[in-house]
Amino acid sequence: MTAQPSSLLASIQLESFEFTLKDIHSIDLEQLHSLSVSVGWPHRLDDLRFLLAHGSGFAAVDSIGRVLGSAMSFPMGGDFSTIGMVITSPRLQTQGTGRWLMDHVLENVKGRRLGLNSTRAAKRLYSTMGFTAEATVFQCQGQATLPAAQKGQPEALPPSTQLRAITPDDLEEIIALDHLAYRAPRAVLLSQLLPLSKGGALIRDNKIIAFSLIRPFGRGYVIGPIVASSDEEAIAVTRPHIASHEGRFLRIDTREKSVPFAEFIRQSGLELFDTVTTMSMYGRLLNPDQENGKDVKIFGLVSQTLG
């Protein structure tokens, strides 16, 4: 984002409210946290710090300094960015604040392909701005427990594969496999995510063919990204995280439904909590070959904000 001489960038009058637009990096972290809590989002302060370190955006601030809205963009390499942290205070959600913030964010990402995961409340807004719905994301969460039939049993791995822990030396190979699945390079994001995470890699012929990461997030831990070419591979790299976190709160955001991977998640205590909609503008995000099980894909998102 172009440097500004002041954190004050614009202003708008919405009925009885007057807002100023500020660079989101000038806003106190506790105020952003309070805003996210007001709409029921589970972000910890550390989760917000991570997002601020990887994106740019704006906040709507009223005349007495309260932060009542936010919106951000996150560059992913190449010509692609995600949009996220689009929040408006509940009492202002029909006042046009979200549209005003989004207009400023979109001005900053001109010429880039865009993706986001929309709540039900925001879907109509994004549709009117030109975003197209592609798929449903299922937010699955709960107290983790291995399916009863798998307890005490050896891990069932795909033929000719081994499972091992991810190390820092795996970063380049992980970045390359994630690029194939995500369809945009995320080298910077993954290089910052890896030190915060523990992960497992599925190996065949000395190459990583699937992997997953788990890290602290929200109420407990989130497993993601999960990158694999099949349900069998995705389960193989996810199962160890379930086993090592039994009794703890886990979350997986996935687009998989009514397939072995989705059923494994449900049997592991991670029930459907909510859904959001993956939407795109200036180019489709999801490859039909991936949706038809013919290519490596994202079985679990890093987060709804980062995809």
TrEMBL record:
<dbReference type="InterPro" id="IPR000182">
    <property type="entry name" value="GNAT_dom"/>
</dbReference>
<dbReference type="Pfam" id="PF00583">
    <property type="entry name" value="Acetyltransf_1"/>
</dbReference>
<feature type="domain" description="N-acetyltransferase">
    <location>
        <begin position="19"/>
        <end position="153"/>
    </location>
</feature>
<protein>
    <submittedName>
        <fullName>GNAT family N-acetyltransferase</fullName>
    </submittedName>
</protein>
<dbReference type="Pfam" id="PF18014">
    <property type="entry name" value="Acetyltransf_18"/>
</dbReference>
<dbReference type="GO" id="GO:0016747">
    <property type="term" value="F:acyltransferase activity, transferring groups other than amino-acyl groups"/>
</dbReference>
<dbReference type="InterPro" id="IPR052729">
    <property type="entry name" value="Acyl/Acetyltrans_Enzymes"/>
</dbReference>
<dbReference type="InterPro" id="IPR016181">
    <property type="entry name" value="Acyl_CoA_acyltransferase"/>
</dbReference>
<keyword id="KW-0808">Transferase</keyword>
<dbReference type="InterPro" id="IPR041496">
    <property type="entry name" value="YitH/HolE_GNAT"/>
</dbReference>
